[in-house]
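agent> step 3/5: call structure_predict on target 'Formyl-CoA transferase' (Paraburkholderia phenazinium).
agent> reason: downstream docking stage needs a structural representation; sequence fetched in step 2, passing through unchanged.
tool.input:
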Amino acid sequence: MARPLDGIRVLELGQLIAGPFASRLLAEFGADVIKVEPPGTGDPLRKWRMLHDGTSVWWASQSRNKRSVTLDLRDPEGQDIARRLAAEADVVIENFRPGALEGWGLGWDTLHELNPRLVMLRVSGYGQTGPYRDLPGFGVIGEAMGGLRHLSGEPGRTPVRVGVSIGDSLAALHGVIGILLALRHRDQQGGQGQMIDVALYESVFNMMESLLPEYSVFGAVRQAAGSSLPGIAPSNAYRCRDGKFALIAGNGDSIFRRLMEVIERPDLAADPTLAQNDGRVANVERLDAAIGAWTAQHSLEEVLDHLNEARIPAGKIYDVADIATDPHYRAREMILDSTLDDGTPVQLPGVLPKLDATPGTVRSRAPTLGQHTDEVLASLGLDDAQRAALRERGVI
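tool.output (status=ok):
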């Protein structure tokens, strides 16, 4: 089956999360991703989080479908090989600090002159321009500057971070969008590539919905609101009789009326002041109290049964054990059974987005360090003796 990105070659010069996650998504839809890693150590992600036989199990997900080439980008010979690889690539992805690639002779101007068709994604904390461009910026800093951290947690308490590196992942998604747009433009405009500048903080800020318009018009500074959704009601987490929480979104007008009937409050369903969202927001504490009083009388399972029957959006809070055993995840192929290099069974996330005619696939396991170095360099014309000499000098 033909895949959407068949024939597209991606040179991944990044490490850890943002750049590699972007290239992982491209690889799942057919792109040939050549991942460049430092000799000896490899991508630091190989040692992040929980390790099996010395390698992170995260690596099995983040680097599937890729080819690994070891190359010292600080060495002139390594830089020359990287330029040769870029000359044959459609896309280069990097997430070093701004200026790092320029110092290695691998900046945008150099690579664009070498390969005018090239599309280059550059991910950094603050972008390639501006007064903060040279500051170090990881995902958590981007999440804070982008406005997300201020809104996370309970009112009056220390802001908390989201439990995953959401800033890096959002930057990767914006980067993939940019790459696909640039490739489309290249097809339309006679083969001209372009550079895509993605900042972590901007990727987070782009998710902040009405935050800025509300401030500019009303001077309102949105604050953390715990489990509720400010300005939209009712939408909250409600404790059930068994101590578990039900997430209930009764904020649609007709949904709200059905919810009030389920919790046996027809008086609230008929109240004209609650017919639309603005009136419900003004009475949110009264509504939350009524819903909470009802959920406290029932187990979580009973609450969800009643609400699902009435077509009211509701659910429980999943942990990973819930995810791994959930039949809907399985039915949607969002949990894939695979194996690590030593045959150990491992479950990995499925492929998104879901295309019905040309779906993404997992074609190969995450590579061992430098697994494809000889294969890729031989394709550039470097013979056995040349590769042996480079290996002896630590370049590969």
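agent> step 4/5: record observation. The longest strand covers residues 32-37.
agent> proceeding.
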